[in-house]
Amino acid sequence: MSADLARIDVPVRVIGGQHDKVDGVDMLRRLVLPSLPGATMQTLPDVGHLIPLEAPQALAASIAEFVDTECSGACRTATRPEQVPAVFDAAINRGDLDAVMSLFHPEATMRMQDGRTIAEGHGALREAIARLMAARPQIRNSVRRVIASGDIALLLLDWTIRLTPPDQEEIVETGVATQVAERNADGVWQLRISNPLGID
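^ that's the sequence the OP posted. Answer follows.
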């Protein structure tokens, strides 16, 4: 197990249950953490082995906090195409319009949720995304598939977005998106085509 764990090269948080008799906290600290360079550990109080069943909200909160923390600094660029959606989510969710725009290729095209296609450059795209961000969106993209060929990649994503427009109730929308990402000269992947309407 240690050899397999040592090959993991992404940020990791090990989550253990305080009363876990199968994979106890001491065992996780002694055997798992040393095999994961830079990993952190969190112990959930009053929880046993079946954390997703015993404390689903606490587990979800821990995962969300970890993702947000990891993406608040280190994940501002995508060095692999499958990272593009997570970097995009983090930028949108923290309301950072400049970071969102940095994810788009200078000649990017985006099909908006109302069916309009914006291909007039960053200025028009920035205006459209700024209007979206006025509703304080919280978005989660889940990568279904990535197909890469050299410096081009096709991504298929499932997404959920929660919008809270001023003086309105929360709106929740879901869908399937298709995206084309391109690796630039600095080795960073950017969106060349973004189509939240996906296969529709």
